[in-house]
Every structure is written in structure tokens, then in C-alpha cells.
Amino acid sequence: MKAGHPAAIARRTDMAAKTPVYRRLIAGVGGASLISALFLPWAAVHGVNRTGWQFNAVAAALFLVAGVFGIATAVTGGQYGVGRPDLSLIAATDLLNTTSMLLLAWLIPFDFPESATRQPGVFVALISAAATAFAVADYRPLRGAPWFPGVPAGPTNSA
Q1: Percent helix, strand and coil across the chain, each rounded to 5?
Q2: 107 within 8 A of 42, measured Cβ to Cβ
Q3: Model-level pTM?
Q4: What is the C-alpha to C-alpha distance for residues 103 and 130, in angstroms, rounded to an integer?
Q5: Which of 18, 98, 152, 153 is deepest in the core (most CB within 10 A)?
């Protein structure tokens, strides 16, 4: 089959079509803005601005990975397995960005150094991580689907 054949195009985009375009757009923009927030000032200490990388390099590495996964979800639709067949790209994006959002939600009010003032970059990172996490989240269990699949009852062998 040729690359330009309609069936090949439909098959190639079929998996990406499962994630709505607006959710993919939010995930991509959120991922890109989370990465760019790492280069904005996060804290001012004694008049010197510190970027996300200078403020906390370990957390910045997490935010970088979360941003890359957000962009990858936007490009692919997130329906591909990541490392394991039961972990999709969209699930990994949700996990990483939810973790990033919770880390930032704790860092900003409770774990910010006393001598530092909060700068816009840290808030851009929080909003970006939250937007991406909520855009890729799966709320089907909250709409009546079972949280855990049922186990069919059958005869048991007890010896």
C-alpha cells in the first residue's frame, strides 16, 4: 500500500483520533509552556532572580519530562504504549503532570525559602502542569464506569 493511499492515512491517524483535538491542543500547549516556564524567573533572592533550573534542578528535571510527555501526547494522541502495553502515553502524561502539579502546589505556599519572593515562572509552571493534567485525565470512573472490573464468578477448585 502506498503512503498516500487513503486507507494508510486513516490507519495512521486512527489511534490519534481517539483523543479529542481540544484535549491534545491543551496538552501540547501546557507541555510547551511548562518547559518554557523553567527558563522564567521563579524566585528572587536578595534581588537576584533564579530560574526554575537554578531554583531546584531535580524538580525542574521532572517538569521537563512532564512537558515533553505533554507535547508527545499532543502529537500522537497518547494512545500508544510506553514501556509496557498497559501504560499508555496519555496515562504517563497524566501521572507526570499530576505529580508536577501537586509538587508545585506544595512548594509555592509551604516549601518556598523565606528569603525568596515568588516570581511569575513558578505560577506559569503550576498552571501549565494543572492544565495538562486535567486535559489528559480520564474521568470515566466518575461517570458510572466501575473502578475495578468485575471478576466472573465460577467454580473454584479447593483441595
Answers
A1: 60, 10, 30
A2: no
A3: 0.76
A4: 11
A5: 98
- C-alpha–C-alpha distance, residues 93 and 76, integer Å: 12
Contact 69, 98 (CB under 8 A): no
Q: What is the CB neighbour count within 10 angstroms for residue 19?
A: 21
d(CA 15, CA 17): 5
pLDDT tens for 26-53 read 999 999 999 999 999 999 989 899 999 9
* CA distance linking residue 88 with residue 131, whole number of Å: 19
- The string of DSSP codes covering 46-58 is TTEEEEHHHH-HH
- β-pair partners for 51: 41
Which SS3 state, helix, strand or coil, does residue 147 take?
Answer: coil
Q: Is the dihedral of CA 134, 136, 137, 143 positive or negative?
A: positive
- Tens digits of residue pLDDT in 96-155: 999 999 999 999 999 998 999 999 999 999 999 999 999 998 766 666 666 676 777 766
